[in-house]
Here is the input.
Amino acid sequence: MAPEATHPWVDDVRRARRGDADAFAALVRSLQRQVYGLCMRLLRTDAEAAEVAQETFLRAYQHLERYDETRPFDLWVLTIARNLCLDLLRRRNKVKTEDVADHTHALPSQEPSLEEGAIARQERRSLEEAMATLSVGDREVLALYYVQKRTTKEIAEVMNVAPGTIMARLFRAREKLRLRMTDAQKGAA
Amino acid sequence: MSPEDETLQAMLLELAPDDAARAQLLEAHRQLEKDLLRLADPAPPPDFLHQVMTRVATEPAPMTRADVRSAIVIIGVTVSLAVGAILAGGDPSGTFGLLVASLVLKLREGVVAVGSGLSALWTTAAMPTVVVLSAMLAAALAAFRRALQPSAAKVVS
Here is the structure.
């Protein structure tokens, strides 16, 4: 007997396994923003992020049989995306991100631009710029926690680390970010 | 206090030893968290879904580990049997040709014997033979068709 459908995507996954392209398209549609967003935060370039995000979904499709239905499908796909990003960064010696081109213009915020106006946009841009100078691990944990609103348990699963270490990682990343922003403000003043 | 809380407390104390500095640091972090929570994931390119589905349709799935294992087992068994047969026949270089020739002769004799048997069967009981052969063929085709359909267990795994 098949296991109970515990996650919303289980039916689509089962249909995709039988070769239903529409079901897989529905899965891509529901996850494309999260996957592309994570790739963008880690790789910092539009073209690479789009390429790796596409590759992520292709790998997911080709290895759907390996997916364990008791685990959340989105975390499984995000883990594939993360591993592909880290592989690419390792291959290109881009683990240190200080010299990577600025692509913060492509990263939006949730606030309505009319309400908060140019000052808010400038603040967000400063935040994105400071974030871009952090290490891949720091960017990753901040993006998953604050941007994608993931729980520490989910982040630990994606990053393949103990859940008890995530809050400390977040604190360290936040502290580095705070220092970078303070430095940037001093530099601007 | 959990080990994680202890780690956080230690980091906090290291960064801000006195109460006032600690309160200031925590407030700065709270403000930063508020700003971070406003960030959003960027939208992928408009043709992203189309690109993914095109690649899914055109790029073949790689061989699974099970496929590779099966192939290795089949090749291994075949090669082992062939080598075993050659070695069992004695001197490989001298007797292999004789072994093949005798196999061909035995095969020919077997074909002739089966032909004679079928001929005798046809002359004595043609109708029952036709019925039995038709039933066997139909059963084989039904089994083949069933084997081609993916089972629910295979799909769900």
Summary: Chain B touches chain A at residues 2-4, 7-8, 11-12, 15, 28-29, 32-33, 35-45, 48-49, 51-53, 55-57, 59, 61-62, 64, 150, 152, 155-157 (CB under 8 Å).
